[in-house]
Amino acid sequence: MSELRVPPGPGLPGGLVVAASELTEQFSRASGPGGQGVNTTDSRVQLSLDLATTTALTEHQRQRALDRLAPRLVGTVLTVDASEHRSQHRNRAAARERVAALLRQALAPPPPSRRATKRTRGAQRRRLDAKTRRSEIKRRRSRPDRDD
Q1: Do residues 100 and 7 touch, judged by C-beta distance below 8 A?
Q2: Residue 24 near residue 47, CB atoms below 8 Å
Q3: Domain Prokaryotic-type class I peptide chain release factors, which positions (predicted)?
Q4: Mean pLDDT throughout 28-57?
Q5: What pLDDT is stored for residue 71 in this prediction?
Q6: Contact 6, 103 (CB under 8 A)
Q7: Labelling 113: which of 29, 85, 126, 142 has CA 20 to 30 A away?
Q8: Among candidates 70, 83, 69, which has minimal Cα distance to 28?
Q9: What is the pLDDT of residues 97-147, one digit of tens each?
Q10: Band of residue 38 on the pLDDT scale cut at 50, 70, 90
Q11: Which run of H or of E encompasses 127?
Q12: pLDDT value at position 12?
């Protein structure tokens, strides 16, 4: 098993490398396509990474990842399954890609907060004119008065 490489991106200018010793792989029989071979080969892959003990993350990155991935974690362990391919090798690659994508997404900085802006005078006038027109349409739908 080799190390996991997360490519550079927002929040990870130099990328990230997780040592192979910090990853845990488990194999089992997968359901789905594969014919007779699906009953004899362990092609399903479960890849796990303990975010609390990994040395690949700084303390700030660790806290951000734990906060953002909290719904997916069991304790502090991130686990990903891959069973969509018939071969164990391709499922191992797919699981690694998923973990890398999850880490990259979790470590990205939050988007900038929205700056409050004011409506332009023209936009306010158009909005009020539209409301007045709509109000007039609805008023005309009512029954006419008896004195008309």
Answers
A1: yes
A2: yes
A3: 18-141
A4: 78
A5: 93
A6: yes
A7: 126
A8: 83
A9: 999 999 999 999 988 999 999 999 999 999 999 999 999 999 999 887 777
A10: low
A11: helix 121-141
A12: 84
Q: What is the pLDDT of residue 29?
A: 79
Give DSSP secondary structure letters for the chain.
---EEEPPBTTBTT-EEE-GGGEEEEEEPPPSS-GGGGGT---EEEEEEETTT-SSS-HHHHHHHHHHTGGGEETTEEEEEE-SSSSHHHHHHHHHHHHHHHHHHHHSPPPPPPPP-PPPHHHHHHHHHHHHHHHHHHHHHSPPPTT-
Contact 26, 46 (CB under 8 A): yes
As a whole number of angstroms, the distance between CA 133 and CA 54 comes to 63
Note the pLDDT of residue 70. Answer: 93
Provide the token pair at 128. 């009020």
User: Which strand (E) or helix (H) includes residue 137?
Assistant: helix 121-141
The pair of three-digit structure tokens given for residue 66, joined into one six-digit string: 């734990």
Q: CA separation (Å) from 89 to 6, 40, 57?
A: 19, 15, 27
- The token duo for 45 is 């892959």
